[in-house]
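To the wet lab folks,

You asked to see what we're planning to order before we commit. Fair enough. Below is the target structure as tokens, and below that is the sequence we designed to fit it. If anything looks off to you, flag it before the synthesis order goes out.
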């Protein structure tokens, strides 16, 4: 699920960047540092919406660098158990398939796929197939997240397509 969250980030600035365009450089550095990263607590930071406050910098003794504590609002993506999401199949293996749901990779085990879908090891590319549907690389699927594991810098998810209205989408 997507949220708008107010977060903070500390930026270290070298003295050569002090001057009239310092604020512009701090904003560019903030965007470069945080967009596309993952925080286990808040989820994936998709985009910075705006900068709320750039604190007054503190010069660090010995190095001359300044430390700025920056508050900003960002769009974050954090998956939850039971959430239904759309993804694109990245890889199909005998044990199941991996689907990319935005920045999140979700594994769907063969135990969590409809029983009428069977893995076909002889096909090229590898696929799960039934009478009506085929799941292979680049297939769009709708899946339900049945579990997540959160690390400090990454989120892992397991999904299912065994329920009604889940599976291949056109």
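Sequence we intend to order:
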């Amino acid at each position: 699920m997507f949220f708008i969250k107010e977060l903070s980030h500390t930026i270290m600035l070298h003295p050569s960047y002090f001057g009239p365009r310092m604020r512009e450089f701090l904003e560019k550095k903030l965007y470069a540092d945080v967009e596309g990263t993952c925080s286990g607590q808040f989820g994936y930071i998709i985009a910075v919406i705006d900068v709320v406050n750039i604190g007054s910098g503190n010069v660090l003794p010995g190095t001359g660098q300044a430390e700025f504590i920056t508050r900003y609002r960002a769009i974050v993506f954090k998956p939850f158990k039971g959430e239904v999401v759309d993804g694109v199949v990245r890889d199909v293996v005998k044990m199941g398939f991996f689907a990319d749901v935005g920045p999140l990779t979700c594994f769907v085990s063969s135990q969590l796929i409809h029983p009428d879908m069977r893995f076909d090891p002889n096909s090229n590319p590898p696929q799960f197939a039934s009478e009506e549907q085929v799941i292979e690389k680049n297939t769009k699927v709708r899946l339900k997240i049945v579990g997540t594991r959160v690390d400090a810098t990454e989120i892992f998810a397991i999904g299912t397509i065994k329920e009604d209205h889940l599976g291949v989408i056109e």
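Structural context that might help your review: The chain has a mean pLDDT of 93. Residues 161 and 167 are 5 Å apart (CA to CA).

Thanks,
Computational group
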